[in-house]
Amino acid sequence: MSTAIIGAGVMGETLLSGLVRAGRRVDQLMVGEKRSERATELEERYGVAVVSNREAAARADTVALVVKPQDMGDVLDEIAPDLRAGQLLVSLAAGITTGFIESRVPDGVAVVRVMPNTPALVDEGMAAISPGSHCDEAHLTEVESLMASTGKVLRIPEKQMDAVTAISGSGPAYIFFVVESMIEAGVHLGLPRATSTDLVVQTLVGSAAMLRETGTHPVVLREQVTSPSGTTASALRELEVHRVRAAFLAAMEAARNRSRELAEGS
Ligand SMILES: NC(=O)C1=CN([C@@H]2O[C@H](COP(=O)(O)OP(=O)(O)OC[C@H]3O[C@@H](n4cnc5c(N)ncnc54)[C@H](O)[C@@H]3O)[C@@H](O)[C@H]2O)C=CC1
Ligand SMILES: O=C(O)[C@@H]1CCC=N1
C-alpha cells in the first residue's frame, strides 16, 4: 500500500518520520511539497520521492493532506481529477470537515479526518480520527495503523473534533507555555537557567508518568503534594487569584471557536 503526504511542513514531516520509524518502506512513500528547498531537504533526509501533488494523488492508495486549512480548497481542486473511487484521503487539517472534502472529490473516495499533535515526533502523539460518509472499517483501521506509528489513536464522532483540536491538537503549546513560564520563574528565584530547565522538564515528565501509570485523578495527585499551610498551598492560592483555571477555559473555548471558523473558510 503506497502512501502520499501532501504538505510536508511540521506535521507532514512528523507523519513521514513516524512512518519511516515504524518500518514503512520508503519506496512506498511519496511527498508533494510546494517549497522546493523543503522538498530537497526531505528527499535528502529520508530518501523519499518528491512528486507533484497530482502524481501523488494518481499513484498513492492513501493520500494524507497536511497543508494549512486555508490551502485545502486549492489542493483539493488541483488533485480531484486524479483521485478515484476506492482511494483513501486522510486530512490532518484543523477545522476542515469531511463533508467539505467529500464535496470536492469524486464519489467513492473515502475520507477520514484526523487531529494529530506534535508529540508524534517522539512517538507520544495523540491522534483523534473520524470517518467521513463513505468510510468503512478497513479505512478506519488503515488510518489507525498510519497514526499508531506516532502514538495513541482514538476514534471520535466528528462533532467532537473542534473540542479535541482545542485540547490535544493545540495542547502541546499550552504545556510548553507553562513550562516556559516555570523556567523563567525559576530564573527569577535565582536558579541558573539550565538548572531551572532540568527541574521543570523532569517534573513535567514525572507528573505525566504518574497520571498515566497510576490512573489516579489529578485532584488526588495534587492533594498529595499539598501539605496544610505548606509551600504548595501558598502557590496554588496565587494560581487561583490569577484565575489560571478560568484562563484555560477561555483559551480552549477560543481554540474551539477558531476551529469552527476555519471550517467556514476564514
Ligand atoms: N503543527 C501542529 O501542531 C498541528 C498541525 N495540524 C494541521 O496540520 C496542517 C499543517 O500544519 P503545519 O505542518 O503546522 O504547517 P506548515 O506550514 O509547517 O506545513 C504546511 C506545508 O504545506 C506546504 N504547502 C502549502 N501549499 C501547498 C500545496 N499547494 N502543495 C503542496 N504543499 C503545500 C507548505 O509549503 C508547508 O511545507 C494544518 O492543516 C494544521 O491545522 C494539526 C494538528 C497539529
Ligand atoms: O494552531 C493550529 O491551527 C494547529 C491545529 C492544532 C495545532 N496547531
From TrEMBL:
Keyword list, A-Z: Amino-acid biosynthesis, Cytoplasm, NADP, Oxidoreductase, Proline biosynthesis
Protein location: Cytoplasm
Domain Pyrroline-5-carboxylate reductase catalytic N-terminal: 4-95
Catalysed reaction, written as an equation: L-proline + NADP(+) = (S)-1-pyrroline-5-carboxylate + NADPH + 2 H(+); L-proline + NAD(+) = (S)-1-pyrroline-5-carboxylate + NADH + 2 H(+)
Domain annotation Pyrroline-5-carboxylate reductase dimerisation: ranges: 158-262
EC number: 1.5.1.2
Functional pathway: Amino-acid biosynthesis; L-proline biosynthesis; L-proline from L-glutamate 5-semialdehyde: step 1/1
Broad EC category: oxidoreductase
Record-linked InterPro entries: 6-PGluconate_DH-like_C_sf, NAD(P)-bd_dom_sf, P5C_Rdtase_cat_N, P5CR_dimer, Pyrroline-COOH_reductase
GO molecular function, one term: pyrroline-5-carboxylate reductase activity
Domain of life: Bacteria
Annotated GO CC locations: cytoplasm
Keyword Protein biosynthesis: no
Transmembrane regions listed in the UniProt entry: none
Coiled coil ranges: none
GO biological process, one term: L-proline biosynthetic process
Binding site for NADPH: N53
Binding site for NADP(+): I6, G7, A8, G9, V10, M11
Role description: Catalyzes the reduction of 1-pyrroline-5-carboxylate (PCA) to L-proline.
Family from the record: Belongs to the pyrroline-5-carboxylate reductase family.
Protein name per UniProt: Pyrroline-5-carboxylate reductase
Lineage, uppermost ranks: Bacteria, Bacillati, Actinomycetota, Actinomycetes, Propionibacteriales
Gene encoding the protein: proC
